[in-house]
C-alpha cells in the first residue's frame, strides 16, 4: 500500500510558494504602521488568503483531480469572468517579473561597483544580463528550473538564517517598539500595507496541485493552513529583525525611492556592523528575487504557451520566452518605478483571482449542491468577508496611488 504524502510536506510546499521576493517589500510598506500594526495587517491577510484557498478546494470538490483553476472558473462563472480572471493572472505575473528585473539590476549594480561600473547604465546592464541568463533556464526546460530551484531554496534558507540571526541578536526593543516616539500615529499607515502583504501570501495557483497531490480536500486544507502559518512566522521574524535594527525615521529615504531594495540594503548596511551579516542580507535578497523570478517566469511561460498555442519545439519555446520575458524587461528599462510600487500593483490586481473569484466560486457551488461533503466553515458571512477584503485591498492601493492615504515620510 502506497504511503500517503504528509501534511507537513505539503505545508512546506505552500510556504515555499508564498515566501519569496514579496517579503522584501514588507519592511518598507510597513514602516509607517511599524511593528504591532504591521503584524496585525499580515495576520489578517494570512487568515483571508487561507480562507480563499479553502474556497477553491470547495469549488474543486466535484471536479476531476486534474481540473485547473481556469477550467473550474469557466464552468461555474462563465467565459467572460474566466477571461477577466486569466487577464488578472497575466497582469500579476508580468508586473512581478518587472519588479524582480528592476530590483535585480539595482542590487547587482551596487554589488559590482567596486570592480565594474557603466555609470548611469549600471542598473540597465545588470537587469538585461540577469534576464538573459536566468530566463534561459526557463526556456531550456522545467527540469533545469527544478534543479536550480532546489539549490536556491537551500541557499536562501542558509542566508536567511544567517542574516536574521545576525540581526535578531542585535534587536533593540526601544527601536522595535519605537519608544522614542510614543505619541506617534501608526494605524492609518497600515491600510497601504495590505496590497504588498496580499502578494506575499499568493499560492492559489498551487491549490489544484495540492488537491491532486493528496487525492482529497481535507489534507490539502490542512497543508494550506500549515503553509500560510509558516509564511507568516517567517515574515514576522524578518520584519522584527529589521524593525529592531533600523529606526522608523530611517525608512523615509527608502520610501521616497519607492522601496528600492538597494536603498534598503544600504541603510541596513550602515547600521549593521558585521560585514558577514551585510553579505548574507545581499545574498538572501538576490536568492529570493531569483527564486521568485524563475518560479513566476515558469508559470507565465506555460500559461502564455497554452494561451497562444505555441508548440514545445525550440522555435515555439523561443516565442513563449519572448512574450514572457521581453515585455517586463522593456518596461523595467523604460519605467523603473521601484520595487515596492510594482509589488503594490500586483497585490491590487491579485485580489481578483486570490480573493474575489475563489469566494464567488464557493458561493456558486453551494447554490448548486447543498450536500457538498467538503464545505468551509463560516457560511455566507465568511464568503462576503473575503470578497470585502479583496475589494478593500484593491481600493487601498488605488487610494494610496492617488494620495488619499497617509504616506509615512519621517
Automatic annotation (TrEMBL):
Q: Which residues cross the membrane?
A: 7-28, 34-57, 83-103, 123-141, 148-166, 186-203, 223-243, 283-308, 320-337, 343-361, 382-405
Q: Where in or outside the cell is it found?
A: Cell inner membrane
**MF term (GO), any:** aromatic amino acid transmembrane transporter activity
Establish whether keyword Nucleotide-binding is in the entry.
Answer: no
What are the record's GO terms for cellular component?
Answer: plasma membrane
| Keywords, alphabetical | Amino-acid transport, Cell inner membrane, Cell membrane, Membrane, Transmembrane, Transmembrane helix, Transport
Note the topology in the membrane. Multi-pass membrane protein
| Domain of life the protein comes from | Bacteria
What GO terms describe the biological role, i.e. biological process, of this protein? amino acid transmembrane transport
PANTHER family, per the entry: LOW AFFINITY TRYPTOPHAN PERMEASE-RELATED (PTHR46997:SF1)
Q: What protein family is recorded?
A: Belongs to the amino acid/polyamine transporter 2 family. Mtr/TnaB/TyrP permease subfamily.
* Role description: Involved in transporting aromatic amino acids across the cytoplasmic membrane.
Protein known as: Aromatic amino acid permease
Organism of origin is: Muribacter muris
Q: What is the lineage of its organism?
A: Bacteria, Pseudomonadati, Pseudomonadota, Gammaproteobacteria, Pasteurellales
